[in-house]
Design goal:
443 residues, four-stranded antiparallel beta sheet, globular, alpha/beta, eight-stranded mixed beta sheet
Amino acid sequence: IAIRAHAQAARGPNVLFLAIDDLRDWVGYLGHNPQTKTPNLDRLAARGQWFSRPYCAAPVCNASRAALMSGLRPSTTGVYENNNDWRTVVPMDKPLTAAFRRAGYTVRGSGKIYHEAYARRAEWDDYLVSEGTSPPPPKNPGVGGIRFGAVDCRDEDLPDSRIVDYGIEQLRARHDKPLFLGVGLHKPHMPWYVPRKWFDLHPLEQIELPPHRDDDLADVPPAGVRMARPQTDHARIVASGRWKEAVQAYLATISYCDHQVGRLLDAFDQSAYRDNTMICFWSDHGWHLGEKLHWRKFALWEEATRSPHIWVVPGVTQPNARCDQPVDFMSIYPTLCELTDIKTPAHVEGQSLLPLLRNPAAGWERPALTTYTYRNHAVRSAGWRYIRYANGDEELYDEAADPNEWTNLAGRPEHAARRAELARWLPTKDAPDIGGHKGQGAE
């Protein structure tokens, strides 16, 4: 009772900043895949506002997270890939954590908020030091680089359980300042190694493959085909006959992740902070499982760029509110600042979502923008996706008539005005890759 009274009296509001790795739009409340089982993410969505068209700033872990946390797009910083050390171009005073610390918050976290290779723990007042080790891989660990299989362990033996344990400890503790708590889960990032019980939730005989066409790349220009790399992961998976097993493993890993989210939500509901805390939920990007003959992220199509996004803001959002406006995750930094009465730093490039959180049907002119590697961009409006590659190759998809993006309309003269309208949202600056690379991502 004393902790609850202290939390209510403390300056606020508090922030629970919940990040998931590699979670595409396969969550129950979005309805894109009936095979998925995410009861805890669904109950989170039911509490507040969820977006049906949310998109990442970059379809690769490091660049996506660096952009979201710094407020600076990849095309501004030159941070495009997992091997770009963003810390060399983003000073300590720029990130979201710095803005909250300056405003008097205690900033604490665990797990994957930034890409692990370039975490800057000095940005935080406290951070989980060790997530522990993972159990050994299964005997038949997937196909090539697509690693999956049930492991002989308990839920508690995986790092994500310990990451959530830290979050629960913070929610049970007394804090003398308003709290910004970041909790970043690794799953469903590969390897898709989780206990057998999560596979059993998704029986192999009931698994359906995602919508796909063997000729899907026939009208995709050469730059897009190079991103798809159909002769690597996809060719190996098809030859192995284990495509459905891989889909099952991804679904199983999502279910495990959802369980961990549920543990955190349960602790949140029992905490002193439940009535004075906003929740911002996001995933860094999506994932392909054979659509466009592609696997992983590292592409500019719908599956790689769309991932779930939920806001629960007491006094602002309504329960189970849906917003269909296209947004990208550059909006998170300025939205959190505005909701907490923190002045948004001048360098931040995104636009606050507060008008949409107050009214999901409010007008919203800006489409979502996603960048992957130097001078490759996708613009996603409510009804269209336009892609322009560095060499000038283009793709255009009518998302209402063709939600699977099977027909590239970019070469049709009747769509020239549409292409031009979407192209005006492309970045005016394309910074060189800070590592001098022009290749494609790796895990």
